[in-house]
Design a protein that fits this description.
This protein has 155 residues and is mostly beta strands. It has strands spanning 8-10, 18-23, 36-39, 42-45, 56-58, 77-82, 88-93, 105-108, 114-116, 131-135, 148-154. The strands form 3 sheets. A 6-stranded antiparallel beta sheet has the order 1-7-11-10-8-9, with no helix packed on it. It has a 3-stranded antiparallel beta sheet with strand order 2-6-5, with no helix packed on it. The mean pLDDT is 89.
Length: 155
């Protein structure tokens, strides 16, 4: 299987993701594929593990010719998409994350990456929308010291 060079893998039934742009928060370096959140008119890495999350993912920066591995620096304008259920995204799996198999349920790892969902997800108001997607490939990054790419279908 070839390595995608884009974050948005398919348009799905709902069409292309809604694309927006905002400045990244000070001290926030955002990589394409990160799960992000809007805070005070800026964006940053989704900051709370296993918590509610909108399906907002950082996209590549076509203005600078950035690739999927080119991070946005602090206070740069970040291009990101709001994805709908069924669309596929090339996300980042947390470093040293438990291995995922095709169909694994994924949630925020609290740093822009995703991880296997914890067993108690959706048991309280702060977690009802914590599931961001489902793995559509197997990736074992349990021994990895850095983040790994993963194909994911949005929940």
């Amino acid at each position: 299987m070839t390595t995608p060079q884009t974050i948005e893998l398919n348009a799905g039934i709902g069409g292309e993701p809604q694309v927006k742009e905002r400045l990244s928060a000070a001290g926030s370096a955002i990589k394409p594929g990160y799960l992000i959140e809007e805070v005070g008119g800026e964006v940053q890495e989704h900051s709370t593990a296993a918590a509610n999350a909108q399906k907002l993912f950082a996209l590549t920066n076509p203005i600078t010719g950035g690739t999927i591995d080119t991070a946005y620096g602090a206070a740069q304008t970040v291009r990101y998409g709001a994805f709908k259920t069924g669309q596929e995204v090339y996300v980042l799996l947390a470093a040293a994350a438990t291995a995922v198999i095709d169909g694994s349920v994924l949630e925020s790892a609290g740093d822009g990456t995703v991880r296997l969902a914890s067993a108690d997800a959706a048991t309280d108001t702060a977690q009802r929308d914590a599931i961001v997607g489902y793995a559509i490939e197997a990736v074992d990054n349990s021994a990895g010291g850095s983040e790994a790419r993963l194909r994911m279908r949005v929940a």
